[in-house]
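Bench notes, bay 3.
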Amino acid sequence: MTNNPGNIKVKPIQILVALGATISALAAIVAILQFFGITLIKPPQTITFICGVSHDGVPTTFAQETTNGDIPKSKSVIRWVSDFGNEVGYTPQKRCEEVSNRFQDYSNKGLLKYIKIGKQENLDTICVAKVYGGPCVGLLWTLKQGTNPQLIYNQLLSDHQGRPPLEEGGSNASEIYIDVNKLLRKAPVE
């Protein structure tokens, strides 16, 4: 007993012709969509964190986004304006370099999903969490003693319209998690 009602015989050549016509139709649809600038596959995007200098001379952590080999867009993430640590040679430039390297390292390891407030050696810190609600899995930077961590969060979460990105340096820490992808979408392009 066959599953071919009416005993219709199909030759392999007919299957190949039908398959070829289907592929040609799909290729034509893709070509039309591309003509209008519509792609079905999202181009690969890479993000690189670097320490640079803003247009006004401030050491700044930038996220450089490159899509499909295009010229990178630099987005300001943190402007290092605090003199916290200057007395021991920990200048804003040095903090910028170290924290930018940590951002990149955690990103490379797949750990940079969320930013949250943490504690290390009884000091408030900004750290990374791999999952929402998860613990700190890596230190980004230590806050100056007496800095309100909530202020840092408010700056990170601000819409940045007409405002600079986070200015580190401004302790009632609450469990708030900042989605790094959303943060980077809002960061201003320089």
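Next record in the batch:
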Amino acid sequence: MTIVMLSTKSEARPSISEAVSTIMMENHLLYEALKLRIVNYHALAERVKKEVEEMTGRKVSVPSVVVAIKRFSDGLEGNGTEVAKILKDAKLSLVGRAADLTIEGRGVPTMRILGDLLKLSPKFLGAPNILQLPSSVKVLADQEDADIIKEELSDRYTVKVTGEAAKIVVRISQKAERVPGIAAFIAELLYRNGISMLDMFYGYEDLLLVVEERLGPKAYQVLASKISG
């Protein structure tokens, strides 16, 4: 599940590499297996191919997914020093009481759901993060905005809400585009400190981390320590 970071408009769908990275970081068992290099890349690619297609919105080949998996796996090793240097320039912000929403409408184009969401933007107190998937629209919003979305759209669509989450936004340097493995480095850092992410959405300059609300302050502190250390 990759994210399109926005407040009132959508951007391009995620790349194959971004989709694969998100899938791997959401599954701790796969993540650890890749670290130990005890996974058959081809078999894993066949397993996640459908999910990658749903996230990217297009057909992908198994070999292209294999390449993305290998690139992610390689990023789990090395580059640690270079990544740490990039993170020195990062800016952090923590938002508590975030909610994860999935909006579905049977037989309804997701563009219509997205349009109805954007019509609500004048009512929002924050800037929800939105991802348009083939059969649904996913939203990460502050709790107050999530309540607005549920109240306004529940009569037309199925709105599933997962609350009790905290959102951490990491804004990194443009230099990050030339340094692979940043998302994997952050995921590993949090795992080592007993924090499993519920989700991670990212681009080259922004990473959006979603953790349990009770772990939000701890995750922020861990990242802040690495940035300032």
